[in-house]
């Protein structure tokens, strides 16, 4: 009998979220009864149907990037709790992305025999700066959620904060089908490349905590210096960021694209930028999709070298490190890459396998 699978997550378009898009592909191999229950915000990407997945809006309110949106999280958690309490049946597989979806379901595990899988993509306790007592409480709450799950999936060894039998490390590598699809789409994006310039790729959620102001200041400096650099930007951000990007002559902003298209663009780029504000502990432990996407597409990467997680990628896989916020240091890196931009500095990624192969090995006995 095919399992009923229910995914709960903030964000309307499952295809614009690489992690959930990859997960949906794996789940569809086992069942066609998949529902994505989501929180839609006004400025999030439009929905794009994913084969075999039904999208259901559980909450439709707020704007991404708004300082008031945090006040709505208790409402989201309450709606998830009520939805699971009255609509989920014994034996249903309930997959929750992050704490805000996982906590209400963890509470229900004492009353309902559901198969709860926790996607621990961002540790709440490590994501914000606050009093040690607040952090301690957050850790205890996250530990409670993780203990209720039959599987607790984390994206890297750096994110394991206590040892339990239900923990599985799933590195953020590409899905094999998405990788194959991306290779077929390379020609679609070839027009973005400027052969007489250094082609620099920026993608994903563009926020202050992910270095967007550092990047914007660098682009402005490069234009003032009249450097032959072309910046290609894919992803979303608040109006301030998008408006400033569109003012630059050296920037091609293409908006939000599918996971496969975002991956295909790597193949026509010379370089990827990926920065995380080191003051946040969660960033010290970050191992994002884009690092592994770059590895699998042999795309050079510049990261900030003042986060712990980047050390292994700089030491073992050919990433280049620069201090967070160091505009001139980043420009010097551009100059170095400009000299031999047709050569990849990346090394073998044999230490990693495609995401779906690892996840299949974890889920096959549950679904």
UniProtKB/TrEMBL annotation:
Domain of life per record: Bacteria
UniProt-listed SUPFAM superfamilies: UDP-Glycosyltransferase/glycogen phosphorylase
Full protein name: Glycosyltransferase
